[in-house]
Amino acid sequence: MSVVQQSLSSFISSSNSTFLSQNKLKFRVQNVSVPGKISRVTKCVSAPSAEKTGHATKVLRNENLAKLQAGYLFPEIARRRNAHKLKYPDAEVISLGIGDTTEPIPDVITSAMAKRAEALSTLEGYSGYGAEQGEQKLRAAIANTYYAGLGIEESDIFVSDGAKSDISRLQVLFGSKVTMAVQDPSYPAYVDSSVIMGQTGQFQKDVEKYGKIEYMKCVPENDFFPDLSGVARTDIIFFCSPNNPTGSTASREQLTKLVQFAKKNGSIIVYDSAYAMYIADDSPLSIFEIPGAREVAIEVSSFSKYAGFTGVRLGWTVIPKELLFSDGFPVAKDFNRIVCTAFNGASNIAQAGGLACLSPEGLQAMQETVGFYKENTKIIVETFQSLGFKVYGGKNAPYVWVHFPGRSSWDVFAEILEKTHVVTTPGSGFGPAGEGFVRVSSFGHRSNVLEACRRFKELYK
Ligand SMILES: Cc1ncc(COP(=O)(O)O)c(C=O)c1O
Questions:
Q1: DSSP strand E in 185-251: where?
Q2: Is 183 in the pocket of ligand 1 (CB under 6 A)?
Q3: For the structural domain made of 71-104+365-460, what CATH number should be given?
Q4: Is the CB of 170 inside a 6 Å radius of any atom of ligand 1?
Q5: Domain limits of the chain?
Q6: How far, in Å, from the CA of 93 to the mean position of ligand 1?
Q7: pTM score of the predicted model
Q8: pLDDT of 232-283, one tens digit each?
Q9: Ligand 1 mean position, distance from CA 163 (Å)
Q10: Backbone dihedral region for residue 67 (phi beyond 0: left; psi -120 to 50: alpha; all else: beta)
């Protein structure tokens, strides 16, 4: 028995606590005693969720959180990947699942962050809290780089610690009484944050949908753009292009229809352009390229997938002054209030990195990073096409949407993992219309992508 086990054991025998009973200790020790794998095992073998502690507070659980189904999609995939690693400890698992970047951040960007970090150690270079909305220089650079000529000013830009955080902050802004629509399938944060805010009904297992959310079906049959004539009016419309997970991009004509639809219904579009730099054709890079969009749309975006900032954390949200609530109050003013209350501004080091991203050298370096992932995408697309699969996306996005007609996405996910040790993402995790598809991410080292494709070819030849 190890020293830790001995002391735990003696603690338990001297304790009346129901929490740490002998049995539970046995359960834990048994599950972590795989030789040489202790830290991994502790990470992935969680205590049973129904485990009772000795003391419960009198605080009611937020009933909206109880509505959520299982875990957030990506932690669930990580859980399955870890379980797979336990089952096959010697397997070389390749992850093309969660859309996390893998390539180093270009030097021109990290050196600017390093310089700013070092300056913080000097009297002249130190800075504490910054403006909640972001540094003026960065707001101006974002406006000039991505929105030049579109009527967006630096004061319309709110710098954030990433698009995901701002999606939730926007939900706080809207409150619990609004109704919302999403593309089906879509990035899970829109639906989950809506559930948490209390905008939805319960999850309906038969249709795999939450009550009170309008799911806008996006499938090959409608070119991944919803038939708006069949979409009910909602207050908020979440729309992502290039889309995660399908990789599809809305054309100018389609976005014009969306803006007109929002205007007619008095709705607000929350447009997620986190992958805009992956666009290779003439699809709009921003919703604000569409006439009239400034009166009906908010745009969230991010440096995550352009510069490898998934860990650094930096994004932005654009709320034009023209966007008003029904009583005429500017939406941006209320969002400013939310940001000042719930957020103290993005890290100053990250903002220095953001500014470097938008320098001529930084933009060039980001294009190269994006270009690298797009070459990966091409390899994945060609692999599945050569195997006879129908493949969507990929052209303007780092995601490939592979069709397995008539099969369950989770079954295909499990089959690929079991037989090739490659992690993908089951399409149904993004919404019921994702059933029958698997998303393959192109975020990976080239050698891993090539090896994964070799294994796919072996499995499906
Ligand atoms: C569509 C979409 N929006 C937002 C995000 C989150 O971006 P960030 O890292 O800036 O929070 C992601 C991340 O995968 C995404 O796919």
A1: 203-204, 209-210, 213-217, 236-240
A2: no
A3: 3.90.1150.10
A4: no
A5: 1-6+17-49, 71-104+365-460, 107-361
A6: 24
A7: 0.88
A8: 999 999 999 999 999 999 999 999 999 999 999 999 999 999 999 999 999 9
A9: 6
A10: alpha
